[in-house]
Amino acid sequence: MSEFILETQDLTKEFKGFTAVDSVRLQVQRGHIHALLGPNGAGKTTCFNLLTKFLTPTRGHIVFAGHDITGENSAQIARRGVIRSFQISAVFPHLTVLENVRIGLQRFTGTSFHFWKGLTGLQTLDAKVLALLELVDLRDMANLKAADLPYGRKRALEIATTMAMEPQLMLLDEPTQGMGHEDVDRVTALIKRVAEGRTVLMVEHNMKVVASIADRITVLARGAVLAEGDYATVSRHPAVLEAYMGTEATELQGAH
């Protein structure tokens, strides 16, 4: 078994002459938190869209758990265990916190589409749901409507729902986007906790978050890999500092 759960070779996406992702070689090690970092327009989210087949690569290959998945569609890739959470919180606002996570678990029970059946069968999942909610500090909010949660807690709920689908690889797209310091710290600690024994690939803009939890970082600029390594290595890389000109470069150096 390869130490890398995900590998890309020459991954490229062109849009009418514009190259958004340029020959990216990515290797994500099993059990690690791997961050994709880069200034706005670097190609981070496009790269995520290629990995989950929301976009089709112009060329290159994607290998997951030893299987070439380049030709597979989004549903096939999700069934393999590549599960993505989105930049904008994606929960069912009028369902309770518990019901949101229970929907994620239903795919393993054969009741995924049995919304018209009684709740008795679904309630057998509740012990597992509550254990997941405990992990993300939402157990006390299980019966609240998702719409009533503060923004940071909605992101925690989204992570719990992602975990309910038992991902082999969790893709987190800007998990701390739009949060205040308190929520950022809470969600950072949460990601570290849920990543134990799992593999996480995350797009993140917050240097402090990346410095504190990422085992390995790939820095993109203009669609290409600029640098790779641990935080200490990439934060001192001259080309990375140049890409993060001005205040962002200061933040990059001071985040550890």
What does this structure look like?
There is one protein chain. The chain is an alpha/beta fold. It has two domains: 1-81 and 169-256, P-loop containing nucleotide triphosphate hydrolases (Rossmann fold), CATH 3.40.50.300; 91-166, no CATH class. The protein is built from eleven helices and ten strands. It has helices at 44-51, 74-80, 97-106, 120-123, 126-135, 151-164, 181-194, 207-213, 231-235, 238-243, 247-254, and strands spanning 4-15, 18-29, 33-37, 59-64, 67-68, 82-85, 169-173, 199-203, 216-221, 224-229. The strands form two sheets. It has a six-stranded mixed beta sheet, with helices on both faces. The protein has a four-stranded antiparallel beta sheet with strand order 2-1-4-5, covered by helices on one side. A hairpin with a 2-residue loop joins strand 4 and strand 5. Helix 5 (126-135) packs across helix 6. The longest helix is centred in the middle third of the chain and has 14 residues, at 151-164. The chain is globular and about 50 Å long. It starts with a strand and ends with a helix. The model has no long low-confidence stretch (mean pLDDT 85). This is ABC transporter ATP-binding protein. InterPro entries: AAA+_ATPase, ABC_AA/LPS_Transport, ABC_transporter-like_ATP-bd, BCA_ABC_TP_C, P-loop_NTPase. One of its GO terms (cellular component) is plasma membrane.
